[in-house]
Design a protein that fits this description.
Layout (H helix, E strand, L loop, with lengths): L5 E4 L3 H12 L7 E4 L3 H11 L2 E3 L2 H5 L4 E4 L3 H8 L3 H7 L2 E4 L6 H7 L6 E5 L9 E6 L6 H11 L3 E5 L4 H11 L1 H18 L4 H19 L6 H7 L6 H11 L2 H21 L11
Parallel strand pairs: 1-2, 1-4, 2-3, 4-5, 5-6, 7-8
Antiparallel strand pairs: 6-7
The structure holds NADP nicotinamide-adenine-dinucleotide phosphate.
Length: 281
Amino acid sequence: MSNRRIALLGAGNMGRALIGGLLRSGTRAELISVGEHLPDARAALARDFGVTATADNAQALAGAAIVVLAVKPQVAARVLAPLAPTLRDSHPLLISVCAGTRVSSLEEWTTGTVPVVRAMPNRPALLGAGITGLYAPGTISAGHRAAAEQVMRAVGEVVWVSSEDAIDAVSALSGSGPAYFFLLAQLMAEAGEQLGLERQAALRLAAATLHGSGLMAHSADVDLPRLRAEVTSPGGTTEAAVRVLESADLRGTVSRALAAAAARSRELAALRPDPDAADKP
Ligand SMILES: NC(=O)c1ccc[n+]([C@@H]2O[C@H](COP(=O)([O-])OP(=O)(O)OC[C@H]3O[C@@H](n4cnc5c(N)ncnc54)[C@H](OP(=O)(O)O)[C@@H]3O)[C@@H](O)[C@H]2O)c1
């Protein structure tokens, strides 16, 4: 990692995952500052990571070349808007991991004074095994793109998308994706029970199969049809099961499920919070 100072606003699940990942990938603790309003969360950062946190977000930004916004989307406006003057003076790169929060909103709340990159990580980032979809408007420099990529690589892989709308697809695929695999594993365990397995054994078999399959699929040049073919002997058990799944239109069901998630992502983004909402009745 470089010697650039990084500030994180919000040290919940994702903020902590990023801090842990940055430290693991070589960023020194003294180069990380955190704005977090919960005293317990600040104490936990000092204890777990040796990282200094403050309740004063403007103070956390001091000297930062990169600011990561990792608060809940519904408070993003309220956190960013008062920081606009500080951001205008220091002009850092702003990376937002806030789901459903558009670049146009982030620019509005910061009065257009900082370059903005959107990042959509997923839950396995908490273990350093995530994947992040990144989007940057055309005005963002190659250096800032590289910096955003480097930060998000601290919690897993990164994939660039070329339009902001594609972030809704990233949310639908990898953002929500862990839940689909968990659901499938749960349904497999329940089906295993119906076939006579003990509940705990069925759960272990399903969860370990999910884990092992994930490891096998984890390669840059993954060939999913080949992996599937390798466990599908003609006339065998797997083929019998896959035939049932295909006849139940699994492909169409998955397609509709992801379309519903992407549509919901667009809907949530349209419910853009008003930075002054907290002051209104
Ligand atoms: N977790 C995931 O798997 C995941 C995946 C993709 C994207 N994201 C995005 O990551 C962001 C953070 O998610 P999360 O799961 O880490 O949420 P979280 O655990 O609730 O963490 C957010 C933290 O920010 C704090 N905060 C709130 N207002 C603040 C302020 N004014 N100044 C400083 N800190 C403040 C929160 O405190 P309070 O609890 O008091 O509000 C909390 O400690 C969200 O925008 C989410 O969309 C998360």
